[in-house]
User: Fold these one by one.
Assistant:
Number 1:
Amino acid sequence: MPRVFKSLATIAAWVLFVFGLLRLLIGLVMAFASGPNPVPMEAYLDFAIGISSLMLSVVVMRIRQKLE
């Protein structure tokens, strides 16, 4: 495989990882900002999107390892 695919996989994994961490952080801030009120549904969606993005980054890194 050409090296460009390995580079693109690395970039995609880092983008997914950073995006996942940001979504988890946003969800955490939204959950704590609600105070004694019920947690808004958007916070739960942010958690789900963040966790799925982190899992996808792991999948991309495993694919990147197999490209070697």
Number 2:
Amino acid sequence: MHPKGYKMDLASFVKKKRKSVKLTQPELAEKAGVGLRFIRELEQGKQSLRLDKVNQVLQLFGYQVGAVPAKPGADS
């Protein structure tokens, strides 16, 4: 359980999901159709990654990256 307001970063999220389904980095890369280097950079929190490839990986877990309001009410 995380403290209220806690936001897990993408790197931690992907690593946690990968481990929960017992995949190695090379296995995840193969299943997602991306390179092993990309998975390593993603899990290490590289700041600039191709969004389409991030979504390829996240789709395996039923997720995707999208635009969300930075603050409540920011979308109005």
